Amino acid sequence: MEKKIQDQVNAGTLLPLMEEFYTIQGEGFHTGTAAYFIRVGGCDVGCHWCDVKESWNADTHPPTHIDQIIDHAAQWSKTIVITGGEPLTWDMEPLTQGLKDRGMTVHIETSGAYPLSGAWDWICLSPKKVKMPVAEIYKEAHELKMIIYNKSDFAFAKAEAQKVSATCQLFLQPEWSVREKMIPQITEFVMQNPEWRVSLQTHKYLNIP
C-alpha cells in the first residue's frame, strides 16, 4: 500500500470496507430494529468459530473514503452499526463524528481488544478469551454480549460481568454451530441468574444479512 493511502488509513479517513447493508439487527439489546451496518475489515483476534473470517485480512478490502461511507449510510437509516472484523483496529473518530454530524445514532460491536476510539451512542462489548478487552472499555460498555460455545464459557461470562457498570445489559448468545446443544444450558443459566438475558442470531433464522 502506498504511503499516502496508508497515512489516510492510519488517520481513519480511509477504512478497509468489507460490506455495507441495511437490515434488521439480529442480536442483543436492539434485536428486531432496523439499522444500516458498516462492516470494516481487519481482525487479529482470531475466534475459531467466527462466521465472517473473510473480514480478517484488511488487505482484501478496498480502502474507502469515509465521506463515501457516510453518504451511503445517510440514504438508508438514522441508526448505524459499525462491526467487523474488529472496528477498533482503526481510528473510528473521523467516521463516527461524520455520521453524528449528519444526525445519525452510532453503535459499535467490538471485542474491545483495542483502545476505544470514536463517538458512540451504544457500545456492545463481546469479549474473547484469545485476546481480552483493554481494561478501560468495560466501564463504557452499554451491553455485554457473551458468546457461549461450551460449558466453560458460563464462568467466563460471569467473570466478565463483574467488570462492567451496574447499568450494562447482560446477554448470553449461543455460538451458531452449537446452538442446539447450548440453548438448553443457556436458558437454565438465565433462569437461575435473571440479571442475564438470552440473545439469538435471529437474522439467521429470518434468512437475512
Automatic annotation (TrEMBL):
One of its GO terms (biological process) is tRNA queuosine(34) biosynthetic process. S-adenosyl-L-methionine binds at residues 49-51, 85, 126-128. Residues 30-209 form the Radical SAM core domain. It catalyses: 6-carboxy-5,6,7,8-tetrahydropterin + H(+) = 7-carboxy-7-carbaguanine + NH4(+). Pathway: Purine metabolism; 7-cyano-7-deazaguanine biosynthesis. The keyword Lyase applies. It holds the Pfam family Radical_SAM. Substrate binds at residues 24-26, 39, 83, 209. One of its GO terms (molecular function) is magnesium ion binding. Binds 1 S-adenosyl-L-methionine per subunit. Binds 1 [4Fe-4S] cluster. The cluster is coordinated with 3 cysteines and an exchangeable S-adenosyl-L-methionine. Coiled coil: none annotated. Its EC number is 4.3.99.3. Its cofactor is S-adenosyl-L-methionine; [4Fe-4S] cluster; Mg(2+). Belongs to the radical SAM superfamily. 7-carboxy-7-deazaguanine synthase family. HAMAP family: QueE (MF_00917). Catalyzes the complex heterocyclic radical-mediated conversion of 6-carboxy-5,6,7,8-tetrahydropterin (CPH4) to 7-carboxy-7-deazaguanine (CDG), a step common to the biosynthetic pathways of all 7-deazapurine-containing compounds. Homodimer. This is 7-carboxy-7-deazaguanine synthase. It comes from Nonlabens marinus S1-08. The lineage of its organism: Bacteria, Pseudomonadati, Bacteroidota, Flavobacteriia, Flavobacteriales.
